[in-house]
Amino acid sequence: MKTSRRLLPCLVALLLPMATAVADETCNSPYLASLIKGQEDYLHVWTLGVAGLGDGADKLVTVDVNPRSAKYGKVIDVLPVPGRGEAHHMGFSDDRRYLWAGRLDDSKIFVFDVGTNPARPKLVKTIDDLPARSGYVGPHTFYPIPGRMLIGTLSNARDKGGATGLVVYNNKGDYVASYPIPTALPGGAQADGYGYDIAVNPGKNVMLTSSFTGHNNYMRDLGKLMADPAAMKQFGNTMVLWDFKAMRPTKVFNTPGAPLEIRWSLAEGDNWAITASALTSKLWLIRQDERGEWQVRDVAAIGDPAKIPLPVDISIAANGKSLWVNTFMDGKTRLFDLTNPAAPKQVYEKVTGKQVNMVSQSWDGKRVYVTSSLLENWDKKGADNEQFLKLFSWDGKELRQQWAIDFTKEKLGRAHHMKFTAKPAAAVAMQGSAIADRSGPSR
Question: What are the transmembrane regions (predicted)?
Fold first, then answer.
């Protein structure tokens, strides 16, 4: 495996002190050039193609979400990409001009220009050398850092198991470096080597990574997978704390049950993060103790863990005081009060679909978007296989549906990951932004 281990740590060390700790729309990297604090104009949905439905291809679907628009709540652009490869997650480049979108099966990465005209994205580059250059497959998390894209992967090209790593490309789409998720640390701490999400706290110079499962599992039928005891043992049970400047793992946390999305509190002065474990249905808090040592502990149950509601996505409020949690199996969107993050309390729940996956909220917390698809072979069958994008308003007491788009009826496919864009005047520039390289990917 080829690496360039000196380049990235030097770049990050140089630029890290300039970075602001403000994140974008509550769940993105702190290194983005701008954030949308007002009304978002467009929502992009990375969508899995379905054989025999429309063109059958994976695609980027753009929806007008500005209530002042005549096309409010309508699909205004559909941009297919060749084939189907388990379209999954996306992430902006640090200048927010480009949207990187990955596929978990064939490991292709598609780079879209969403800065020139966000209402009409354009495909400007396809990256297909991830397995050959890094040895890893299943690009999942796209986490922009200055001049680079840090990619969290789910599997490896050798045996398609859960052992994996982090991969870095520059903004032009060129491979830079690879960093394996550890299986052990000096001193004897054991880890599983699995990956999933990435989250950085620049002020503390720490990065957290979480863990899921490999290609052999995530491409299987969910029912058959859950009936296979050996396969069910191949899920991640740890998180890793890294020295971000050095890109060096420093500590392993025991978090059984596949900890997925990681969210740092965005409130000034807060230095804690939270995650949810899918199989054990728990919220886990990561923060420093009185000695300054980073610790983790489970702080709340999500629904009835014995029924495996399967928490799949979380969205933290901009003030760090609440957390939305979507659970796939029971189709519920739950709200937890995080006023005391060491003791979260569920204060609301609503069935928002027969199956739900991603949840995204606006910066002001007044709008909550929900999509339906988890993975092609994990989605429910028959009438329960709803595929949708829904917008709910939140007034502090009740989620009220504003509109819904039936992705099956519209012959679009399976709606998965979402990202907001706005017209240029709506973007608010960050002060002290740590942007090193504003050149976009090669066209």
Answer: none
